[in-house]
């Protein structure tokens, strides 16, 4: 592989467009080294427009094979049920030495390696929806033949749209439960906080803006100070004040228990789905 790999997205949908757009806008890859395939012209045009003119191939007219022969990194960004079929179709056509990266939810390394063929270098990624706005949190795991350089490359690609953590494959169920499904927990909490602000008298829009900025600010403080969340929480709880009164109410209503139950339920469901 050259220093500047060519990167191709099989599927030009939301996740592919977000990732490819991030690669180009962050200067990781110039647009002329990024490619995509999809069947509809609309998908291809939107992908091209979001990537500063990346070239696309028509998947209905041999484009997937053309992409496979062209690129050093083949990112599988079609729906999970299409992964096996599209990967099998690329066998014998992929550029020599190419790396396969799957972002498909729930498709295991075993499935990917079986469909890609012996010795294929495969990395499986679990991205999340905030990648679409450059604030993603992804987990990834390498297959049997993927190298340290492959893992470093995938990490650098993912960091163009957020943060990335390498884990062993069984832990991808936990990643799914924390960051994959996590945006929904955040949305639910944010909605509740905004509603509660409305109840306390704030206009809806103001309450929602304050709630969203507050959650973003709390997350930024954890990331930027490196302090434990409990330390930061203690610092904003003055004796006999409003915040400790609110924290006590959250504890009484079982916030921690609810979060533990939610993550355990999502992880169990993710494990179950991998075996379906
Ligand atoms: N969106 C997320 O937040 C998110 C989060 C985690 C994981 N993922 C994973 O990312 C993958 C893509 O999801 P998405 O949300 O980006 O879906 P999407 O927006 O529906 O994109 C799917 C793309 O695949 C194209 N396509 C369909 N059949 C094809 C074929 N035979 N050959 C080539 N391209 C084909 C579609 O375009 P045409 O119909 O025009 O061909 C479309 O561009 C999924 O496996 C999903 O599990 C997504």
UniProtKB/TrEMBL annotation:
Pathway this chain belongs to: Amino-acid biosynthesis; L-proline biosynthesis; L-proline from L-glutamate 5-semialdehyde: step 1/1
Record-listed E.C. numbers: 1.5.1.2
Subcellular localization, as worded in the UniProt entry: Cytoplasm
NCBIfam families reported in the protein's UniProt record: proC
Superkingdom of the source species: Bacteria
UniProt cross-references to InterPro entries, sorted A to Z: 6-PGluconate_DH-like_C_sf, NAD(P)-bd_dom_sf, P5C_Rdtase_cat_N, P5CR-like_CS, P5CR_dimer, Pyrroline-COOH_reductase
UniProt-recorded name of the protein: Pyrroline-5-carboxylate reductase
Lineage of the species this protein comes from: Bacteria, Pseudomonadati, Planctomycetota, Planctomycetia, Planctomycetales
Broad EC category: oxidoreductase
Function of the protein: Catalyzes the reduction of 1-pyrroline-5-carboxylate (PCA) to L-proline.
Keywords from the UniProt entry: Amino-acid biosynthesis, Cytoplasm, NADP, Oxidoreductase, Proline biosynthesis
Gene behind this protein: proC
MF terms (GO), sorted A to Z: pyrroline-5-carboxylate reductase activity
Pyrroline-5-carboxylate reductase dimerisation domain span: 169-273
Reaction(s) the record says it catalyses: L-proline + NAD(+) = (S)-1-pyrroline-5-carboxylate + NADH + 2 H(+); L-proline + NADP(+) = (S)-1-pyrroline-5-carboxylate + NADPH + 2 H(+)
HAMAP family for the chain: P5C_reductase
Family: Belongs to the pyrroline-5-carboxylate reductase family.
Residue ranges annotated for the Pyrroline-5-carboxylate reductase catalytic N-terminal domain, each copy included: 6-106
């Amino acid at each position: 592989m050259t220093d500047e790999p060519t990167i191709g997205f099989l599927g030009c949908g939301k996740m592919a467009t977000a990732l490819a757009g991030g690669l180009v806008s962050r200067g990781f890859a110039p647009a002329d080294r990024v490619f995509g395939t999809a069947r509809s012209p609309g998908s291809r045009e939107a992908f091209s427009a979001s990537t500063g003119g990346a070239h696309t191939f028509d998947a209905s007219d041999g484009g997937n094979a053309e992409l496979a022969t062209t690129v050093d990194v083949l990112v599988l960004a079609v729906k999970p049920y299409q992964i096996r079929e599209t990967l099998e179709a690329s066998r014998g056509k992929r550029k020599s030495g190419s790396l396969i990266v799957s972002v498909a939810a729930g498709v295991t390394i075993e499935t990917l390696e079986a469909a890609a063929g012996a010795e294929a270098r495969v990395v499986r990624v679990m991205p999340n929806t905030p990648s679409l706005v450059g604030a993603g949190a992804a987990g990834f795991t390498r297959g049997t033949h993927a190298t340290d350089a492959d893992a470093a490359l995938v990490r650098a690609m993912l960091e163009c749209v957020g943060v990335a953590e390498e884990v062993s494959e069984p832990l991808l169920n936990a990643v799914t439960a924390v960051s994959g499904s996590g945006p929904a927990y955040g949305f639910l909490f944010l909605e509740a906080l905004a509603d509660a602000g409305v109840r306390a008298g704030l206009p809806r829009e103001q309450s929602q803006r304050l709630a969203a900025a507050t959650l973003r600010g709390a997350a930024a403080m954890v990331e930027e100070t490196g302090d434990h969340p409990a330390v930061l929480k203690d610092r904003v709880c003055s004796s006999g004040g409003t915040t400790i009164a609110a924290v006590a109410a959250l504890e009484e209503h079982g916030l921690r228990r609810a979060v533990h139950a939610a993550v355990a339920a999502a992880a169990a469901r993710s494990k179950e789905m991998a075996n379906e």
